[in-house]
Amino acid sequence: HSARPVTSLERALPSTSSPDLAALVEAVRGGNEAAFRELYRRLAPAIFDYLVGVTRDRAEAEDLLQQTFLDAWRGLPSLRDAAKARAWLYGIARHVGEEYLRSRTRQLALGEVPHLEASGPLPEDAAVSDEAVRFVWAAAASLEAQHQEALNLSLRHGLTNREIGGVLDLPPGRVADLLMRSREALGWAVRLLFIT
User: Fold this and answer.
1) What's the confidence (pLDDT) of residue 38?
2) pTM score, whole prediction
């Protein structure tokens, strides 16, 4: 069994191992603002990338990133296990992103025209120029939202099944099943795109 390849995003990030993060979280709980800045430095790039995927707008993703970390600061007492900080933070980002999409849907329903920023390359395009990767992610766009999100968290962000479960509020066994079905569905989507 070969190991999963490390993504370019993972290579760009400093260590996010649970013991390191757990120690930082405990320091933040103790009121250490420098520890919070370090937590932000380590996790903000990946959370930002995740939010760009949700919003498809870098400026909106920047605002949502700030909201995510503000909510994390306020909600830190509710984090029961400091070793689960990464999944907890992705869960906050997911919630913030969902709120953004709901409010955006309400605005569009009221007739507002959304601001569309000049389309620059998304992080996956900037980090990886391989056409095959873009082809696969194009196929992934045809999957159900939960399948897309599970694959994104697993493949692009390197979260474990347990961490994904924390983000999606699913037990790890259910996540393993979801990822297996997502990979199957992705395989079919790639085949269909390749044929057409």
Assistant:
1) 93
2) 0.65
